[in-house]
Structure formats: structure tokens, C-alpha cells
Specification:
115 residues, alpha+beta, Ribosomal Protein S5, domain 2, four-stranded mixed beta sheet, 3 helices, 4 strands
């Protein structure tokens, strides 16, 4: 689990990143990035109820994306001082569980968030 200091928790901060942040999109996910002055990256993952009616599916998506972001932060691969919001969409469910983490990692590399 990512420690509290590395999470975006307040609704107003999420709205600020969504409004002012740079967006990188694919059919499966949109990444919003906005520079911060904290000296370390922060992140949050958003999956709406429209993605799946089953909470277990939505939670699995969030857990896998959070894990990829957490590993990037812990291994110092995400060295940029960004607030990152990942908004996952329904096509992300169609990717097999085995390949989903690799897909998320590739998405972060395309967005130039990983070293």
C-alpha cells in the first residue's frame, strides 16, 4: 500500500489536477499529470461505476494500477514531482489479468512518467 503522503486524497486536489493537468489518453485509461512542489510524486486511481457493475472488477483494476504506480515510486522510477491521476475505463477490463500490469507499465512509459 502506498503511504498517505504519496496519495492524493482531497476532492479539491483531484479536481484541480483533472482541470489543469496534462492528459495522456488511450481507450483503456487516461492519465492526468500536474507538477507539484512537494518534492515527490503523488497518485490516485479512479474507476467509475460505469466501468463495471461489479465492485470486485473495479477494485481489481484499481489495485493493479496502484501496484504499478507504487512500484514505480518505491523503485525511484517515477522521479518526477507530479500529481498523477489514472482514470480507468471499461476496455481495461478486456485485458487479461496477466497482461494488465504490463499494459499499465507500458502506458506510464509512453506518458514518459517512468525512467
Amino acid at each position: 500500500m502506498v503511504s498517505r503522503g504519496f496519495r492524493i486524497t482531497q476532492d479539491r486536489e483531484i479536481k484541480r489536477v483533472l482541470k489543469l493537468g496534462r492528459r495522456f489518453s488511450s481507450p483503456e485509461c487516461s492519465l492526468y499529470m500536474l507538477a507539484n512542489t512537494l518534492g515527490h510524486p503523488r497518485m490516485t486511481v479512479v474507476v467509475s461505476a460505469g466501468v463495471s457493475k461489479l465492485a470486485v472488477d473495479r477494485n481489481r483494476l484499481k489495485r493493479q494500477m496502484r501496484d504499478v504506480l507504487r512500484q514505480g515510486i518505491e523503485q525511484k522510477r517515477i522521479a518526477f514531482n507530479f500529481d498523477i491521476i489514472a482514470v480507468l475505463r471499461a476496455p481495461a477490463l478486456k485485458i487479461a489479468d496477466v497482461g494488465r500490469r504490463a499494459f499499465f507499465q507500458g502506458l506510464l512509459e509512453k506518458a514518459r512518467l517512468l525512467k
